[in-house]
Amino acid sequence: MKKTINHTLSKKRKSAVCCGCLIALAITILLPFSSLQAAPSLSPFKSLAYQTDSRAMGARSLEEGGPVFRDTIQIPGAIWVRLQFGDCHLGAKSYVVITSLEDGLDQHLNSKSMADYRNRSAFFNGDGVTVELYTDPEDENVFITIDTVYYGEPQEFGSGATEDGELLPKVICGSDDRTAASDPAVGRFVFFDFSSNMVAKCTAWIAASGAYLSAGHCFQRSDYGDPDLLEFNVPLSDADGSPNFADPDDQYPIDLTSFLRHENGQGDDYSVFDCNPNSDTGLLPVQGQNDFFRTAKVADLSTPTSIRITGYGIDDGTANRTLQTDAGPYITENGSGSVVSVEYQVDTMSGNSGGPVIINGTETSLGVHAHGGCDPGSGEGNHGTSFENNALESALQNFFGSNVKYVDVGHPISPGLENGTVLRPYDTVLEGVTSASSGAQIRIAAGTYSSAAGNTFTLGDDGKSMLLLAPVGSVIIGN
Fold first, then answer.
1. Do 113 and 229 contact (CB within 8 A), yes or no?
2. How far is it, in rounded angstroms, from Cα 253 to Cα 324?
3. Could you tell me which CATH class the domain 46-152 is placed in?
């Protein structure tokens, strides 16, 4: 069965793969600071009702060893396609395969992953997909239905444009010095706004603890909709700036039960969350990307001179909403308690929201980028929520439970400050094990913990039980 949906588009389909783009930047004046919320970047999408039920085909094999149901869905001129499934019953072993007509990349969904993805497929570049249902003899009454097809259209635009066509001020610190970047720990955060039919994109990243962080204003707010996916290894956009989506193997569904967030303005804007596994690889982002940033307080380190911001901000052409980076002067830290911001003169744009505030030349983050306001002439900079924020520190510390000790041999904390917390981890596993109470988790950052450094011990002699975890990367103990 092949169904081609003919729909009048505002612009002729290009030969390159792309995603529709329309920039809408929310500008918020926050007092007493001269600052702008570093809003998500938004792209329009459209939806069409699509009532398909595999049971209408009957439970029969289309070819030997092949699917029992196949459908081709194509929308001429569309630049990406995504499916919303309705009622489905896949049993224990049956599954669905969705394949892009554009590049042949595919996604497999079984009962568990269908639920993890909230009955939605990944995003597929191009104007169509095939859908195939494979059944296992042990499963009974297997079927799928498709309710809706979401798709994007091309939309040409230039960088810095807001919805009303004016430039966004005080975000680029003079000239735009951002350059292309490649960082496995930094992903593009995607969510759907069904009220205005917009796909919104921010930045998110992997912390050494195994948690994921972004800005609070990027996470489940009424005017943007539910958080959706975290994608990595995002390809270049098309020449007109229309972004492409990552390989379905690099798209991870957000765990909506996991998030902690604040959106209270400059110095208190963050989210901490978890992801579900990718439907094809079975991996979490921490496993698939195998990279992270350490988290630290400014007060616990030597004061930095330079800050780097890496993220998916808007731009012109093929660089639009792809991973870019820039470095510039560290200015200061402002506030106290649960309202603390770190300030820096580094180029950012809408879509950079949620990225790590990196000490330049290191793998250490001081907070979460969230607000603009850069004006080198007056000495002002852009801003992130600092890990000095008490609520953010608590959220990160207790994200995996209250009985957790953290260990990191590579953390740059000043000597003598280690206490086993997420921002002040011990540098030996022995310290973590000795200080832990029974039932604790010991979350150990990637690295080698040598016996010469005091990492020789015997577990269980003291009668305590505990779980040793390597949340991101490989850990070698006692070598």
1. no
2. 23
3. mainly beta
